[in-house]
Fold this sequence. Notes:
Elements: H1 2-24, E1 53-57, H2 61-77, E2 82-87, H3 90-100, E3 105-108, H4 114-124, E4 128-132, H5 138-146, E5 151-156, H6 160-167, H7 170-178, E6 182-185, H8 188-197, E7 204-206, H9 218-232, E8 239-245, H10 250-263, E9 268-273, H11 279-288, E10 293-295, E11 315-317, H12 324-330, E12 333-336, H13 349-353, E13 358-360, H14 368-376, E14 380-382, H15 386-398, H16 400-416, H17 420-432
Helix pairs in contact: 2-3, 2-17, 5-7, 9-12, 10-15, 15-16
Amino acid sequence: MPRLLYTIVYTLLLPLILLRLLWRSRLAPAYRYRWLERFGRFDAPAFDRNRPVIWLHAVSVGETLAAVPLVKSLQSKNPDWQWVITTTTPTGSERVRATLGNCAFHVYAPYDLPVFLSAFIKRTHPSLCIIMETELWPNLLHSCGARKIPVMVANARLSERSARGYGKLATLTRTMLADISMVAAQQQTDAERFIHLGLAREKLAVTGSIKFDLDLDDDIRHKAAVLRQQWSANESRKIWLAASTHPGEDEIILQAFASLKKKFPRLLLALVPRHPERFNSVATQCLQAGWHVEKRSAHIAVDIKPSAVDINTDIVIGDTMGELLMFYGAADVAFVGGSLIPVGGHNLIEPAAWACPVISGPHIFNFSEIERLLRKNDALAIAHDADTLATAIDNCLSDDLQRRESGERAKAVADNNRGALQRLCALVEELIL
């Protein structure tokens, strides 16, 4: 009965969901296209019914980036497996195609109504569904369960806030959890929250976060080194990276930057909004504040070598996709956004893996265990406003030794927590083989 009521409500809300797509397309035109895919209608490849089809769902960019190493690792061990990757956002779609190319078929995830899910499953015939992190949809799980398709929630995290939300729909939540075959939780605290909501303990494993298994290969290290030379004007200026920022944070960052420029007049701020539709508006905001601004995209062309940033430039807007990891490798210090406001934070491991000192706001409930590990190792500074943010950046830039030691402590946390990817791959193979 709870799922039936959910389905009725979802159906009634569908026109509003479509209107929201149109609204978002004002700033991100890609939302206007490929709507039929969201109704389970698309031209699927001719999958070989004698070989497994793995359906992996990653909501957007963050989940997609976490999924890529998992997909590549499993592909190397199981080259006969066929892959269908679904996302809900155009940015997630772009990342799938850029990182996996023809190795996987991408399509937008169907809306969570039985008729659309049936159409999707009929076209793809998945042998296993892998849901990255925590994206639980009642009809998706029920559709898989009714067809005996195993479902794994991989790299699962469940914040206290999310657990409270699921707890308010206890009957529906227990029904969803009954249709899940395996939850591979990032940490024990995540696992305990799933159990409290009704997941059977035998369906649970604690694997750690696969985001620790970050591969900084020679290619990206070389690109980061080249970028650093371009941004730092051959080490003549420091670089502060403010990554994955949300509305409400850019103003705070610019206030802190204005304060820091009094002491560090050559400081370069690389400001990277989380969502592409905000690239232009954030650039305009910086210009209106009186800063000399360049866009990263202006320095990238097919036929020419990216040029150095003008020495008089104050701010570079990171308006490209897929380069944030490289940006961390070029920075002297990094602030990770989504944390000065209650969004829940973003990936703190990427700067840590580069031995880049890490600063965050206080709202990191989506990465609470990683926060705990970094703070335990004295490798994370917390800023609450423009003043404390400026102070934290100042502390890093004023003392080279302190900055290097802070970065090395962060890197130690990243290095010491590897291994989740291998454990997760083993669990996936158990569900298939």
